[in-house]
Every structure is written in structure tokens, then in C-alpha cells.
Amino acid sequence: MTPDEDRLHIQNIIRSAVEIDGYTKGMEYEDYTTNESVRTAVAMNLSMIGNEAALLSDEFKNQYDELDMRVFEGLKRANYNEEMEIDHHYVWNIATQDIPLIKEKLSDVQTRIQPEEGIQGTTTQTTRNNLK
Length: 132
Description:
Elements: H1 3-24, H2 29-34, H3 36-55, H4 58-63, H5 69-74, H6 89-113, H7 125-131
Helix pairs in contact: 1-3, 1-6
């Protein structure tokens, strides 16, 4: 796995976190429990976060050990099933409390892993060599 691939996976995780935030922002728990389309979309994006986290390289996971990737990867099993879900608190808490923190941490990591750019906006030779 290359650093570019890790960057892409991080970008996709952040994108899913932003989508979850967009679905739930300003929403109350009671509204969430009655809106099946939002619950489905949140579960789908949580699953996408887990799948992307599972694709990150071991080197990345070791380098950024402040991120507990086991937790991220566990989200790939998130799914929504109206008949099976009686209590929505678990997913609601992840969506409204954990996802904003995840988004913040990953945005910080993303800024640290951006390729260095030369004066004219091109990637430097050193960085190009590191990306191979």
C-alpha cells in the first residue's frame, strides 16, 4: 500500500464523517428515531468508514497510533435493520459524539500526511520518491 492510497482512504473516511454530520446536525434524538432514511444513511456511512479503515496500511496504523483503528474497523459491521434495532442510542451516540471527534483527529492527520509541494505547486522529488 502506498502513502497515496492511505491518503485516499483517510479522505474517504473524512467524507463519510462529514456526511454523517450533515444528516444529524440540528437533529434531535427523537427525530432520528423516526427518520428511517437518516438512520439508514448514517449506518451506511459508518460501514464505509469501517471498510476504509480496514484498508489502511499497517505502516499508517503504526505511525498514527493515536487513532484506535480497531474501533474504526469495527464500524464496518454497522448496518441498519428496522426490525432488529430497538434502541437507537448506540448509533446516535456514535454519529453525534464520536464522529465529530473522529473527523477532527483525521483532519489533523490528513494535514500531516499531505505531500510536500515545491514552489510551483508540484510535488518535490523527495516526496515523489517516498510515494513510490
